[in-house]
Automatic annotation (TrEMBL):
This is TetR family transcriptional regulator. It comes from the Bacteria. It comes from Phreatobacter oligotrophus. Pfam families: TetR_C_33, TetR_N. PROSITE patterns: HTH_TETR_2 (PS50977). PANTHER family: HTH-TYPE TRANSCRIPTIONAL REGULATOR RUTR, TETR-FAMILY REGULATORY PROTEIN.
Amino acid sequence: MASEPDKTLAERRGYHHGNLREVLLEAARRLIAERGPAGFTLSDAAKLAGVSPAAPYRHFKDRQALLREVAMQGFAELGRRLGAASAAGGKDGFLAMGRAYLAFAREEPAYYAAMFNTGHPGTTPSGDDPGFAALERAVGQYLGITDRAKVRSAALLVFALTHGLASLATPDSIATPGGLTDPEDLLDRGVEALLRGLSMPSGR
């Protein structure tokens, strides 16, 4: 009998036709974490999942479709985390969202890589994305503004800062080998400085 480490994903998850999609998505996440989004084929995912090379085509027309689905799952999970972090409200809730973003990038490298390295249309922040929508609400409340264009502009600046620090904090970052020592502190100070500047009257 095969030991647990030797079993395929399909065997460990009690594979049947009804959960083939989930088994393939889990295989893709593992391969992305090990090799990056461009480092595997659909056949590799099928092999890791323990199914035939033709099986993935029942759910995904090609490798890019599989990657897009992984990215969609990642955006949904990030949105859930950001929404939960913002529940505290006020400044604490706002800063908690940034820390939640950093934690997501650190804890879910496969999702993070798929979301921002696969050409998925959702990689540009949108009001339709639950995570970015939560950020816009928090920014608007923090700054006390309701103008849609101003809120979106401020949210994009906060997103750019947060995403940049999250990328620099990864151990394989070219710019900062080994990552950053305290990205949470850098983010807190950076976001507070950014929002102070945004809240000041123009020309001041």
